[in-house]
Amino acid sequence: MHNSRTGGCGAAISTCVIVVLCAAVFMAAFLAGTMSYAQTAQPPSAAALTPPAEFAVEDAPSDSGRCFFLTWKKMPYDGPGVEYVVYMSSQGGNGPFEECDRFESTSRFKADVPWPFWAWNKTKEYHWTEVELQEAAATGKREKFRTPKTEQRWFKVAATDGTQTVETSVASAVAGPNWLNQVKLNNLLFMALFASVVLFFIAKAKKKDLFLRKIPGLSAVDEALGRATEMGKPIFFLTGRLGVSSISTIAATTILGEVAKKVAKYDTQLRVPHCDPIVLGLCQEVTKQAYLTAGRPDAYKEDSNYFITSDQFAYTAAVDGQMLRERPAACFYMGYYYAEALLLAEAGAGVGAIQIAGSDADTQLPFFVTVCDYTLIGEELYAASAYLSREPVLLGSLRGQDIGKIVIMIVLLLGVLLGTIWVLFDLQRTTGIPYTRLLEPFRAF
After folding, report:
1. Same domain, 273 and 318
2. Looking at residue 323, which CATH number applies to its domain?
3. pTM of this prediction?
4. pLDDT tens for each residue of 316-361
5. I want to staple 252 with a disulfide (CB 3.0 to 4.6 A). Which of 15, 158, 334, 390 is the partner?
C-alpha cells in the first residue's frame, strides 16, 4: 500500500507539474500574441515618420484665381492611422499658420483628379489637395482670407500618426486668374471644327443648291395655299405661346415670312392672331417685308396681324370662334404650345382645313400628330426656313449641323465600344478570368 500511495502522490505531482507547465506555456503564448497585436495595432511606421518629400505649392491652373494646388510624394509610411494636415498662413512664412485641410494618407492622389490627360499628370505616386480661399474663409477667419484677384499664401504639410508629427518646410505661391481653361480645350477644338464644317458648306451652297431630304409637311405648303386660293378662304397662321426670346417662336416667324411671300403671290387672305404684343410687332414687320419682296406691297394689310389677349384659354376660345365663323382652308401651328394645342387643332379639323403643325414641345406633339394632316417634329421646325427659302447661309448651316450630329454619334459609339473593351481588360486583369468566359453571356445575342 505504501508503494501504491507513493505512486499516487507521484502521479498527482506529475499532473500538477504538467498543468503548471501547460499554463506557463499558454500564458507565454498569450503574452507574446498580445505583444505582437499591440505592435501591429500601432501605426506600422510609428518610428519611421519623415517629412513628406517633394512638397510643392502652385497656383491652381484653369481657374479664376481663388485656389492653390499642393502636391507631395507618396511616403513609405502611408497607411491606416496616418494623416496629413495642411496648414496655411496669410501673413508670411513664419506664421501664424491655421489648419485648412486634413485627410487620410491612403487618399487624395493626383490620379483622383477628374481632369483630362492633357491638363493633368495622373499618378498614384503623388498626393494632391486643393485649398480654396473662400473655403478657408468659411472657417471663421474671413477677414484674414478675403483677398483681391492675386494674393500670396504660405503652406506647410504635417504627417501625424497620433504620437509623432513631422512637417515639411514652408512653401508659397501666388493665386491669380488664368486666361485659358485647359480642361475645356476639347470644347474649343470641337467648336473650331464644327464652325469650319458649317462655313465650308455655306460656301458650297453659294455655288450650287444643296440637297435636302423631302419633308412632307413643308412640301404640302403650296398645296394648302393653292386650296385656300381656289376656295377663296383665309389662312390662319399661329406662332405659339412663347415670347420672341424663344427659338421656336423665331423659327415660326421665319416660316411666316416664307408663307407670306406665297400668300402675296397668290393674293390669299392671311390671318395671324397673337397673344404676345412683342411677337405681334415682329410679325408685322416680317409680313410687310415678305409682301415687299414678293413685289406686292399694295396687297399688304395692317390688320392681317392682330392682338387678342395674353390669357391662354381666352386666346384659344377667341381663335376657335374665328375659325368656326371664317372656316379657313388651311391652318398653320408653328412654335411652342401648351394645353391649347389640341383645342386649336380640333377646331381646325372641324372646319375641314388642311392643318400643318410644327413644334418642339414634345408633350404636345402627340396631339398634333393625331389631329393635323402634317406635323414637323422637333428640329424639322428649325429646318423649315432653310427648306422653304433655299438661302445658302441657311442651307449650309443646316448641312453643317447634320454632319456635326453624325460625328457626335460616331464618337459616342466609339466611346461605348472602347469603354466596354476597357472593362473587359480590367476584369481580366483583376480576376484572371479568360476573355472567352467573360464574353459567354453575350454569345446569345
Report:
1. yes
2. 3.40.50
3. 0.62
4. 999 999 999 999 999 999 999 999 999 999 999 999 999 999 998 8
5. 334
Residue 41 lies in a domain: no
Are residues 217 and 163 part of one domain?
no
Indicate the helix (H) or strand (E) that contains 187. Answer: helix 185-207
Amino acid identity of residue 3, one-letter, is: N
9-60 residue pLDDT tens: 444 445 444 544 444 444 444 334 434 433 444 444 444 788 898 998 888 8
| Shared-domain flag, residues 236 and 295 | yes
In 357-391, alpha helices (H): 365-371, 380-389
Residues 6+ apart with CB under 8 A from 186: 116
Question: Within 13 Å and on the Cβ side, how many CA atoms surround 323?
Answer: 28
Residue 82 included in any domain: yes
With respect to residue 114, please indicate whether it lies within any of the assigned structural domains: yes
Q: DSSP state, 246?
A: S
pLDDT tens readout for residues 163-177: 888 989 998 888 878
Number of domains comprising the chain: 3
In the DSSP assignment, the letter for residue 388 is H
Q: Is 307 helix (H, G, I), strand (E, B) or coil?
A: strand
- Domain region containing 127: 56-180
pLDDT per residue over 91-137, tens digit each?
Answer: 888 878 988 889 998 888 988 888 777 777 888 889 988 888 764 44
More confident site: 302 or 430? 302
Neighbours of 217 (CB within 10 A): 22
Closest residue by Cα to residue 148 from 172, 177, 173? 177
Dist. CA 423–CA 415, nearest whole Å: 12
